[in-house]
């Protein structure tokens, strides 16, 4: 059998049409911002069909989408998303933080549900154009940013379950305030044995829309017991996996005296976070370029860790820190973990964040805001 090679058009930034919003809004005062409730003047849309490939991109006014009630996304959750932030650096430049990582993850997720893939650099160029156009919406205050939400949905009007023959990629932007206002706020976790977030062979390692609504009830149940988030476990061994919608890190003092930073290895049940990757890269760079504040005898481990190991480390006084890592909070310290009816108390230091997480927070924010030069910050040319 000879395969026929057909090359359909990829996303092409040169074809971009810009329709300026005739009624631009006024950004609210930064102190009034609530995460994900305010949107900028414009959005990017790019349509795709299986017959014609990607169509010309359009940046137009932020506005409702029009979908038929038979659109597959409304029935079978042919939907995925990304989340990244644009920052106003200390020199006034606009930067995106590691957008290449989001593009490769978005393509990997699209492939998983038979939605079309695309050129990552092309979408970064279009996102840059959108952010540039709505630059007045990027809050200037330290710790503020513009949250960028690329989304891809299947739009075919058909009730059969199969690859969607049409799709819509859109990007919307929302100005956000700092996750921490007036000091770090450690959170309590409920290590839940009742629900699972992800299972081997499943879809937990993809940023698919279908992964998120099922976490709402477990989170409400945790909240009713006085915990902010779920600590998702897996298997009869009670392997630790993730925290709410963040990756998980544990800091232990080993019996040989070394400090060990542990995170579960990437597999089917772990979302490959950009922040997770940044924490690991920074921690690993410490052996050649020491980061002030990190211990000398410091080991970085991507390995499985169970609740029984955490409990025994805690009892031996060797549990030093637990934190979540994700784009919204960057680093989120944990001070308490409910497990089988008891609470494990986790040290958080005087400032509400342990020494390792505090270094990670400082180093990542420094690179996001341009205080520390880094090729992780992609400049949006103005
Ligand atoms: C998005 C997400 C993360 C964090 O990923 P970042 O790229 O660091 O923002 C972690 N876990 C889950 C389940 C997620 O959806």
Description:
With 382 residues, this protein is an alpha+beta fold. It has two domains: 13-178, Aminotransferase class 4, branched-chain amino acid transferase, N-terminal domain (D-amino Acid Aminotransferase, Chain A, domain 1); 187-369, D-amino Acid Aminotransferase, Chain A, domain 2 (Alpha-Beta Barrel). Helices cover 20% and strands 29% of the residues. The chain contains seven helices and 19 strands. The protein has helices spanning 73-76, 99-112, 120-133, 216-224, 274-285, 307-315, 355-369, and strands at 17-18, 42-49, 53-54, 58-61, 79-81, 84-88, 94-97, 145-154, 166-176, 187-192, 229-234, 239-243, 246-253, 259-263, 298-302, 319-326, 330-339, 342-345, 377-380. Strands 1, 2, 3, 4, 5, 6, 7, 8, 9 and 19 form a ten-stranded mixed β-sheet that branches. Strands 10-11-12-13-16-17 form a six-stranded mixed barrel, surrounded by four helices. It starts with 16 loop residues before the first strand and ends with a strand. The structure holds pyridoxal-5'-phosphate. Pyridoxal-5'-phosphate binds at residues 83, 207, 242, 245-247, 271, 273-276, 326-327.
Question: What would the keywords be for this entry?
Answer:
alpha+beta, D-amino Acid Aminotransferase, Chain A, domain 1, D-amino Acid Aminotransferase, Chain A, domain 2, 2 domains, 6-stranded mixed beta barrel, 20% helix, binds pyridoxal-5'-phosphate, branched-chain amino acid biosynthesis, L-valine-2-oxoglutarate transaminase activity, BCAT-like_C, amino-acid biosynthesis, EC 2.6.1.42
